Structure formats: structure tokens, C-alpha cells
Amino acid sequence: MPENVRKMSDEEPMSDGGSASPVSRASTNPSPSAELEAVSPKHPLQSDWTLWYFKNDKSKSWDANLKSVITFSTVEDFWALHNHIENVSKLGNGCDYSMFKEGVKPAWEDPANEKGGRWLFTVAKQYRERTLDTYWLEVLMCLIGEAFGEQGLIVNGAVVNIRPRADKISIWLSDSCNKDAIMAVGQGIKNRLQLNDPRDRMNFEVHADTMSKTSSGIKAKYTL
Ligand code: MGP
Fold it and tell me: Of 181, 136, 173, 140, nearest to 155 (Cα)?
């Protein structure tokens, strides 16, 4: 495992109780031996990615609850990570996973996000067991596979929110004005996840609107 990839077990926020820990499914260290790596080198990704975990601890601020877990840069380390952590459907209510390009924090305030927005869709609670894990994995594969070509340069990352009413998956973009690129990414996600039912609506929301939203909610800039 490259030196910049920290082991999941090194992370302090993963070890205490409360909401489900994303590492509880792990029983062995999946990193391949040095010998195996020498014979069969790992396949580098186009970008390095960081997994983040948000733990719903009401005694702490939003920012204090958000922790980076691990950064990876190869296909093999992505799968090792995926096999190592808890499925999203098993996380506790109020928890999130985020995966963002290295150096970008999954927060509106990050300079890479502040002028951007997100494609958002909800997954009804009754589909958490059946489809949420598959949707999230497909979104992650679109990200690490840089599946949107040139238009995908505006992709910063993705977030899954586990919430009591309905779970949410969003793809965060650095831009909220370049309609062609925004629509291409949104349509790419819809196609990949086969969100073909008219009820499978995706909304593009500008982060600046989300930050200042009132209880009445916000108006989507685009829909698909
Ligand atoms: P949420 O976790 O994105 O959605 O935001 P949730 O829990 O479904 O709530 P809803 O308001 O969308 O119905 C919940 C709260 O977390 C926000 O109201 C903010 O207080 C805080 N929060 C969320 N995000 C993504 C950010 C962020 O990027 N920066 C800061 N400072 N706070 C955030």
C-alpha cells in the first residue's frame, strides 16, 4: 500500500461507539504483499481520491464530525477499501460517506466547491437494502473511472447521506453555470444508474442556494 494511504484502523473517529462504524465488517488486512505488488503492479487512477466519513454526533459541530478516512490512487486500493468498510446501507442514521478528489473537502466552503452545485437524487427508505449500495458503488465507479470525459473535469466528488426519511446521493460539481457540462454529468449518472422511471428525478442545486436555504427548501436550477 503506498505510504500516503493511511490504514483505516489508524483513524480515531472509527473506533468509538455510537453510530455504526464503517470498519466493523473488516476482519483481515486486504493489502497485497510487497512480493505480489512487485510481480503485478497496481493500476493507477487518473486522480487520487479521499474517502470521508461523517458521524452523526449531535454534541459536535458539523465540521468536527467530518473526518477524512483514507486516500487511494489505484484501482486495487479502491477495491481493497470498498471490501474493507461498512456498506452505506449499514451506516447509522445521520451518517454520510463522501468521496472527493484529494485536496477537496466535501464542504460548501471549500474553494473547489464554493461556486459549484450538486446533482441530487433521493432513494426511498424502503430501497435502502435493495438499491442504495449498488447506486453508491456505481457512482464511485463513475468518479474513479472519470466516466464523463472532458465534461467530467467539473466533478469534485460525491456524497451519500443516510437519513431517516429518505437517503440521498449527490454528485458535487465545481461549476454551477456551464450548463452543457452539468447536464452531461447528470445524464451520465442517470444512464449509468438506469434511473429511467419518471419518479427518478435528479435536481441540480447550487451550493450557494443550499447554504442559505430556508425551511421552504430550494429551487433546483436544472432537473433531469
Ligand atoms: P445535510 O447533512 O447536507 O442534509 O445538511 P440533511 O441532514 O438531510 O438536512 P437538510 O437540511 O438537507 O434537510 C444538514 C446540515 O449540516 C446543514 O443544514 C448544515 O448545518 C450542515 N452542513 C451540511 N453541509 C453539506 C455543510 C457544509 O458543506 N458546510 C457547513 N458548514 N455545514 C454543512
Answer: 173
What is the pLDDT at residue 127? 87
What pTM was estimated for this model as a whole?
A: 0.86
User: What is the CB < 6 Å shell around ligand 1?
Assistant: 62, 107-109, 161, 163
Fold annotation for 43-223: RNA Cap, Translation Initiation Factor Eif4e (3.30.760)
- Give the cell for residue 192: 449509468
Which of 53, 62, 120 has most ligand 1 atoms within 8 Å of CB, for mutation? 62
The residue extents of the domains of the chain are 43-223
Question: Do 99 and 160 touch, CB atoms closer than 8 A?
Answer: no
* Residue of the CA atom closest to atom 28 of ligand 1: 107
Ligand 1 mean position, distance from CA 143 (Å) = 22
Q: Flag whether pLDDT at 3 surpasses 50.
A: no
pLDDT above 90: residue 119 = yes
Per residue, the 3-state secondary structure of 10-39, as one string, reads HCHHHCCCCCCCCCCCCCCCCCCCHHHHHH
